[in-house]
Specification:
By secondary structure, the protein is of the alpha/beta class. The chain has 2 domains: 28-115, 3-Layer(aba) Sandwich (Rossmann fold), CATH 3.40.50.10860; 140-273, Rossmann fold (3-Layer(aba) Sandwich), CATH 3.40.50. 40% of the residues lie in helices and 17% in strands. It has 10 helices and 11 strands. It has helices spanning 7-29, 44-60, 75-86, 106-112, 124-132, 140-151, 171-179, 199-203, 255-258, 272-291; strands spanning 3-4, 34-40, 63-69, 93-96, 160-164, 188-192, 208-211, 228-232, 236-239, 247-250, 262-265. It has a 6-stranded parallel beta sheet with strand order 1-11-8-7-5-6. The protein is globular. It starts with a strand and ends with a helix. The model has no long low-confidence stretch (mean pLDDT 96).
């Protein structure tokens, strides 16, 4: 049977390390790291996610602020809120929770964020520095995945890593980090997407398969080679009347079918999700240290 990569376990360990650093920072500078989140509208998944971030801040001793805006807020109003946060010296970092309503240009909003407070790592400045291997805020989910690999000492050098999905948030940055001359890294990376031909042939060559496609249970056992490491970034709510909540959570990988073939696999829930949040905390701590 495979080793289950529990993101929750790794995240809890990192939270303890962050909490220690926070108390040290308070003693030395009298300052407490401060993270803010802008939430537009009342999308259920986004709300849950932002609440989890607020809770995580409490655990490590950060201050947190939530800026909640109506879903019909104008782009100009949102840009004004961003401007306020950019100029708030008391604030170390902030995120704008995605996705945004259709009438707001996501790219314009991302570019308005002050790169020194961009703890989500989505600003072109952050991404450019990442590509060059310069110190910067790494996108939270790819950073979380690398921490999971590191925690389990999963060998990556010379391995074939296949990434399914090419989003700016996960797929593309993930492929760059896995190919860099560092650990985890030094992989030969293939990036695949909706236009890829012969996807199954490619995924069967993967020593490390990172799935960030956004399609429930898309990857099946016949697409995975024996002994592979599989990281599932997807999360979906599927209606399930047998559950008290009325739904169950699944990833982009058909877990029960794929797991027996793997040497390591991350579950959903409890895999990448907690790591994304803890990476955001790591970036905020870094922002607070940069300030001092």
């Amino acid at each position: 049977m495979p080793t289950i990569i529990s993101g929750k376990e790794v995240a809890d360990k990192i939270k303890l390390e962050i909490a220690e650093e926070v108390s040290k920072l308070k003693d030395e500078t009298g300052r407490t790291p401060h993270l803010a989140a802008i939430l537009v509208g009342n999308d259920g998944a986004s709300k849950t996610y932002v609440n989890a971030k607020v809770k995580a801040c409490e655990v490590v001793g950060f201050r947190s602020t939530l800026v909640a805006l109506e879903k019909d807020v104008s782009e100009v109003h949102l840009l004004n809120e961003i401007d306020k946060l950019n100029n708030d010296d008391d604030l170390d970092g902030y995120i704008v929770q995605l996705p945004l309503p259709k009438h707001i240009n996501e790219q314009k909003i991302t570019e308005a964020i002050n790169p020194s407070k961009d703890v989500d790592g989505f600003h072109p400045t952050s991404l450019g520095k990442m590509i060059l291997g310069l110190p910067t805020f790494l996108p939270a989910t790819p950073l979380g995945v690398t921490e999971m690999l590191k925690h389990h000492n999963i060998p990556t050098e010379g391995k074939h890593c296949v990434v399914i999905g090419r989003s700016h948030i996960v797929g593309s940055p993930m492929s760059i980090l896995m190919s860099q001359n560092t650990y985890p890294g030094n992989c030969t990376v293939t990036i695949t997407h909706s236009r890829t031909q012969n996807l199954k042939e490619i995924t069967l060559q993967a020593d490390i398969l990172i799935v960030a496609l956004g399609k429930p249970e898309f990857v099946t056992a016949e697409m995975v080679k024996e002994g592979a490491t599989v990281i599932d970034v997807g999360i979906h709510r599927i209606e399930d009347s047998s559950k008290k909540s009325g739904f169950r959570l699944v990833g982009d990988v058909k877990f029960d079918e794929v797991a027996p073939k793997c040497s390591y696999i991350s579950p959903v829930p409890g895999g990448v999700g907690p790591m994304t949040i803890v990476s955001l905390l790591k970036n905020t701590l870094l922002a607070a240290k940069n300030k001092n």
